[in-house]
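Example S7 (structure tokens).
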């Protein structure tokens, strides 16, 4: 079970603007810890395992943060409307579009997804398997 995911960021103010626009509407809460950001998912007592926390931090070694080629975090959201709304909000909060909301021919007909990058360049997918 994955307990948490950490992404590096050089500009924590830009990261905070982006991730609060993206995650707070999904029920996450944000905490600051030693100058870094912790996004904690809503607790679901009926879930068989927890959803991982997301930590946004300056790299511990003091070097410049970088994103991984082929690395992506996917967020399962309730509806297609949520995919569209959150994609728009995250782009307006400093993210950049990497793929407009829609179905993809490579996946099943109910897989509705949008892709974007955070201000540091990390790739994020927003998807819903709920039919329209």
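Recovered sequence:
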């Amino acid at each position: 079970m994955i307990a948490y995911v950490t992404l590096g960021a050089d500009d924590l103010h830009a990261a905070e603007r982006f991730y609060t626009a993206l995650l707070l509407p999904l029920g996450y809460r944000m905490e600051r810890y030693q100058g870094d950001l912790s996004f904690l998912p809503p607790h679901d007592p009926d879930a068989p395992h927890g959803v991982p926390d997301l930590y946004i931090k300056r790299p511990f070694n003091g070097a410049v943060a970088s994103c991984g080629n082929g690395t992506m975090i996917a967020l399962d959201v309730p509806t297609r409307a949520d995919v569209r709304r959150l994609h728009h909000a995250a782009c307006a909060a400093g993210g950049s579009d990497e793929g407009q909301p829609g179905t993809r021919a490579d996946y099943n007909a109910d897989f509705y997804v949008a892709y974007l990058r955070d201000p540091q360049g990390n790739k994020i997918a927003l998807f819903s398997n709920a039919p329209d």
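Notes on this example. The mean pLDDT is 92.
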